[in-house]
Amino acid sequence: MLVVHGINQLNIKGRLEVKMIIARSYATQHTRKALAARTASTPLAVRERRQRQLGLAPGPEETDATPDGLSPSDFARYQRHKALDAIPKNPDGKYQSPKEWVLRRNARRSRIRGFRTIRRIVPTKDDPTVTKTVNEVDVVGQPVYLPNIIFRLVRNHTPEGQDYNPFEATFRIPPSITKTDIRSYLLAVYGIKTTYIRTDLYYGRLKPRGASNRKMRSTYKRAVVGLVHPFYYPHRIEDMPEEERENREQSIEQQYFIKEGQEMFAQSRFRSASVTARGQESKQWKFDAGSVKGRGKILREVARRRQLKEQMVSGLVGDWHRTRMEGKTVTVDPPRSRKPKKEAEAKAE
């Protein structure tokens, strides 16, 4: 099946042309999504400048990239380097195409640093008197130490009605980490190549604790990273079907004992509170899982009992009304005495 894609391309004179490219949908689906993700994550100031200068205003799932995959900034940089004769030439004497140039630049940025290739002359195995030149990899630079930072992977922000973008990954990282650190960390530790990185800083807020104590929520930096290969985040438990969700929760409970840990934590807190109130631990202490503790739980329990009482009274009044409508006499049992049993017996004698 052939489909037609409309792609904007910026020519040398800076004018906007529209070219129609015929491609197979299954061959361009992932590439177009990746380019659309890069366009959507472009800073707002850059998008406004491109719209003002170039007239580019792509939609939510569209891209402003050229057919070779270059962003407007990369294409302008290619034209500038070409005018300065800074673009490498092929063996036929022609300049590299925009696609070849950007692939060469990305390969250089993603290279593994700390290594270099050295040509050495070594004897051959068959005849030691005959030598040959071989390329060997030599390690240079300083020792590399493992990082002591935490990269927390979270789900991407997906607007309602749009599909999850697998060509983006979102991390929560310490505020001191830079974009170069992110690129080097992902490549050196996990072998993940990145296409772009957007960062924004989230400052912590004061969280009230009691009358005077306040705790500052931790400040973190969010990093949105463009991926070369798609990564599909696992489904959330809330999005799973009911049967699959129950199996998942049961599997998590069997592996990590979350509910058991919560019960043990509640027991330890109640036990410590009991010891603090009495001054010493009681031998007859017993944990009651059904007891109500805390002001909020007490108020909810009071409201629940009040609702039950009102329902019981309204039901009894309804029974009396139906009895009267039938012409019968309503009989009410006398209230039970609340006096102690011994006083009631003495009064009867």
UniProtKB/TrEMBL annotation:
GO biological process, one term: mitochondrial translation
MF GO annotations: structural constituent of ribosome
GO cellular component: mitochondrial large ribosomal subunit
Span list, region Disordered: 37-71, 325-349
InterPro entries: Nucleotide-bd_a/b_plait_sf, Ribosomal_uL23-like, Ribosomal_uL23/eL15/eS24_sf
Pfam families in UniProt: Ribosomal_L23
Keywords noted in UniProt: Ribonucleoprotein, Ribosomal protein
PANTHER family in UniProt: LARGE RIBOSOMAL SUBUNIT PROTEIN UL23M (PTHR12059:SF5), RIBOSOMAL PROTEIN L23-RELATED (PTHR12059)
Family the entry assigns: Belongs to the universal ribosomal protein uL23 family.
Protein name as it appears in the record: Large ribosomal subunit protein uL23m
Organism: Lentinula aff. detonsa
Organism lineage string: Eukaryota, Fungi, Dikarya, Basidiomycota, Agaricomycotina
